[in-house]
Amino acid sequence: MREKSTTIYLGPQHPGITGNMMVKLQLEGDTIVKAQTHVGYLHRAFEKLIERRNWMQTTTILCRFCVPEPDPPEAAFALAVEQIEGREVPERGKYLRSLVLELARIQSFMLWYAGQTGSAGLYTVGQWSVGDRNYVLDLFEELTGGRIYHMYIWPGGVRRDIPEGFEDKVLRTMDYIEKRLDDYDRMMFDSAIFQKRAQGVGIINKEKALEWGVVGAPLRGCGIAHDVRKDNPYDAYDKLDFQMGIFEGGDVWARALVRRFEFRQSISMVRQIIQNLPSGDYLNKMPNPMKWTIPAGSAYGKVESVRGEFGFYVVSDGSDKPRRVHAKGPAYVHGVSLLEDVLVGQNLADVSFIMNSLGVCPPEIER
Amino acid sequence: METTFIKEELLFRQLETAFENVVLEIARKEAVLVYAPKELVAPILLYAKEKLGYKSFSHLSCVDWIENDEFELVYILWSPETKINLFVKTRIERENPIMENTDTIWRQINTYQREIREMFGVEFPGFIGEKEFILEDWEEIPPMRRDFDTLDYVSETFDERPGREDKQDVRERIANRSGEEIPDFAKKYSRE
Questions:
Q1: Do A52 and B150 touch (CB under 8 A)?
Q2: ipTM of the assembly?
Q3: Residue B138: inside a domain, yes or no?
């Protein structure tokens, strides 16, 4: 007898969904035969608001595109504006940017630990990592004044220099976090539950991955070595020694291994930055921000966030306000066309598990 | 030091020989621009994908140039081999905007086309995608067009939150109540 087909709506209010988003699932038994993404529950019209704001005010909106990762949008926008304007960034500014971006990666990895294990029912690691994440947020608070939203990366450099004794605090925090990683491993990667849930689940087709626009950890989890920091180096990344995490399989397990590896790389990069921090200016100052105009032109600035390439297409018409700022976050592909494809044939219980591993962040899709 | 654009120039020549009627520009390092008429966009995208190694599609954006009565569509491609971003730009008329559907070349274009149809009202004949993407029951003009005024829309559609009608200055009230004075430098922020 053929099983009866059922349609269910997962989200937008569902603890497993990674934000305000709904996935319409067609099921046979508990196997998914069709999935459809519905977004629009958190549309804040940021790109429209930006058209009414000047270039400086724009930087305060950008970080709100995706809550778990507020820094990559700032950096991508700054890169795009610098390309149009031809503004150089002082060496110290570049290093400080990379420092913030790597610290941002670290805090985002820790949130990912919580999401990924939480959706498999292993809550302990999440409690630990979110607790430990506060130590990184403390650093951000001291450096930028904000714990989550920093508005620290400006076109031309960074907003302020590091406070006294900050390097030492960063190094101590890194030592602490590195020690904790072994505990995380024991509870997560050594756990039979996690291994069983993750291996062979949510597989991305390797041959199609590049063509489908997969980026970041999901792409490297297919064994394809691409990372914006390596391919088109920005800020201080061409001077830092780091490796990409490349793992075969294309499943949730491979993506988890990529992130586990890159977490350690980020810690090493933070140490390298602190050790090699050049002296000098940290900001190539723009003119009076209220009268700051950018020459007409367009550019696409992109950086590597934890979830993959984050880009901004920025257009200036020569006035004091952006003509168009269009975001392209990794979730735009991962959360719609890719997710709809990967979910087919999977079990209903794995939906939020897969969404977490793809890094689906709905506020970034609808902005 | 003069920057040299060797790989960019190679791409420039390849495109120059393959297509007439296009304007090419090396914008900066790892960025090459193609300005093409709209019927050439699909052939350029296909050529870039099949022949030039532009395997990956990064972004599709739309810009409203209301003063010229045009929309500009920008297709951003990326080559894993040369690491160059290729921008294919085309202008279409703002009245009755129609653009060829290209989601058969890269399927993720489908999502972008859904967004641009909803936000700018550009039609892509022949493509399948649910009508509503981000908005719900929208009856105004497409909201990302420059002539849609967010402030007007908000003040016409939504009511002011109750309790704000008198527009009182809370700071002043507290100062009066406690018998303090607002310092001179802060007075300019007071409500009149």
A1: yes
A2: 0.88
A3: no
